[in-house]
Every structure is written in structure tokens, then in C-alpha cells.
Amino acid sequence: MLRSTLLAIAILVPATAFANQCPSMMKSIDAALQTTTISAAQKAQVMQLRQQGEKQHQAGDHAASEQSLAKAKAILGM
Prior knowledge:
It contains three helices and no strands. It is mainly α. Helix 1 (2-35) runs antiparallel to helix 2 (40-58) and helix 1 packs parallel to helix 3. The radius of gyration is 15 Å and the shape is elongated. The model has no long low-confidence stretch (mean pLDDT 85).
């Protein structure tokens, strides 16, 4: 019983961590978009990646969401 409880916790904790990180990544991207000096093409790419990351987050695919959002942050130089 204890073993199965610990296994469930070990599985849920990483998923929860990813779920909580996605919104903060989106907020930081939104803030950076307000003051960025990147080109219009780069800004469009960041916005596309941010939207993709949000959709992935809402679908529960937090690992993919984090990857998309990390790409957007890299373009922004974050």
C-alpha cells in the first residue's frame, strides 16, 4: 500500500511541476513581447510558439508546451 502511494506521488509531482511552469513561462513571454526589439518576423514566430505552447498546456502536454515556450524565450533572448 505504501509503495503504491509513493509511486503515485512520484508520478504526479513532476506532472504538477510542468503544469505550474507553463503559465509563468507564458507570462514572461507576454511581458517581453511588450518591450522587445526583435524583427517583426521573429515577433510573429514568438507569438506562434507562445500560442502553440498554450494549446499544448491546455491539452495536458506540458513537456511539449515547455519546449515550445522555451523556443519562444530563446528567440527573445531570455
